C-alpha cells in the first residue's frame, strides 16, 4: 500500500514540470495513522488494511506539508474531499494558506 499511496504520488510529482501549486487529495483517516517509518511494507506486523490506509494517508499529508515548506517545491495543500476547507481557500485558487 505504501508504494501505491505514498511513493507513486511523490515520484509523479518529482518528474513533472514544477507547477505553482500541488493539491494532494487524502482522507480524514490520516488522524488514526502512525507516523513511524518502521515496517512501511507491513512485513513484520499482522496485516490491518484500515491501519495501513490510515498510515499511508498520514504519510501523504506529511509529504505534502514537507513539499510546501521546501523552498525548492511548489506550495502544497493536503485536502480530504469530504472535509470542509480550513485553509481559507474555498475555491482552490491561488496559494493555500494552511502551512
Mean pLDDT: 74
Shape: globular
- How do the strands of the widest beta sheet line up side by side? 1-2
What is the H/E string?
Answer: HEHE
Domain module count? 1
Percent in helix: 25-40%
Broad structural category: alpha+beta
Number of continuous helical runs: 2
> What percentage of amino acids are in beta strands?
5-15%
Please give the radius of gyration in angstroms: 14 Å
- Report on the biggest sheet: 2 strands, parallel
The tally of beta strands, per DSSP, is 2
Low-confidence stretches: 89-99
In whole angstroms, the N-to-C terminal distance is 27 Å
What does the model show?
With about 100 residues, the chain is α+β, with helices and mostly antiparallel strands. The protein has one domain (about 1-10, about 20-35, about 45-99). Helix content is about 35%, strand content about 10%. It has two helices and two strands; from the N terminus they run H-E-H-E. The protein has helices at about 1-15, 50-70, and strands at about 20-25, 75-80. The chain has a two-stranded parallel ribbon with strand order 1-2. Strand 1, helix 2 (about 50-70) and strand 2 (about 75-80) form a beta-alpha-beta unit. Helix 1 (about 1-15) runs parallel beside helix 2 (about 50-70). The radius of gyration is 14 Å and the shape is globular. It starts with a helix and ends in a 20-residue tail after the last strand. Mean pLDDT is about 75; it is low at about 90-99.
